[in-house]
Amino acid sequence: MVKSFRDLEVWKKAMDFAVHVYKVQRSFPETERFGLADQLRRAVVSIPSNIAEGRGRGSAKDFVRFLYQAQGSLNEVFTQLELACRLGIVSHGTGLYDEATEIARMLSSMIKRLREHPQPLKATPSNPTPQIQPLKSNPSKLTAKS
Fold first, then answer.
1. Residues with Cβ within 8 Å of residue 81, at least 6 apart in sequence
2. What's the domain count of the chain?
C-alpha cells in the first residue's frame, strides 16, 4: 500500500534518474556549468519534486496536475540531453534515455489510472506524511569535485 510519495515506484525511479543525471553532468565542460548543466539539474530535480508535491495534495485531480508538470520537466530533460548529445557532450550510451523513457511510461500510466479512477489522497493515520530522514552520509562529502 502507498503510504507516501516515497512508496511510489515512479518517484524512486525519478530520484535514481536525477542522481544519474547529476553524475553525468559533472563531466560537462566548464563553459556549460551555468548553462546547459544548470538547466538540466533544475529540470531533473523537478521530476521527483512534482511527484512528491502532487502526492501530498488532497485530491487525485491535484496529483494528476503535478504529474503532468513532472512530465513537462521530463520532456525538458529529454530536450537538454538531446542537445548535449548533438554538442558531443554526452552519448546515447549513458542509459539516461532508457531511464527517462521508463519514467515517462510510468507517469503516463499513473495519470491514466488516476483520471479513470480518482481516489482521495489526503494524509490519514494509515497514510501519514513522512518525516524527513537525516542524511546517512557525511554532508561534507556531498560537494562536487573540482
1. 40, 90, 96, 97, 100
2. 1
Q: Is the residue at 133 inside a domain?
A: no
Taking the C-alpha atoms of residue 78 and residue 85, their distance in angstroms, rounded to an integer, is: 10
Q: Which domain holds residue 86?
A: 5-118
pTM of the predicted model, to two decimals? Answer: 0.80
Distance CA 90, CA 84 (A): 6
- In tens, the pLDDT along 30-58 reads 998 889 999 999 999 999 999 999 999 87
16 and 141 in contact (C-beta within 8 Å)?
Answer: no
Q: Is residue 145 part of a domain?
A: no
β-pair partners for 124: 127
Which regions of the chain are under pLDDT 70? 1-2, 120-146
Q: Is residue 143 part of a domain?
A: no
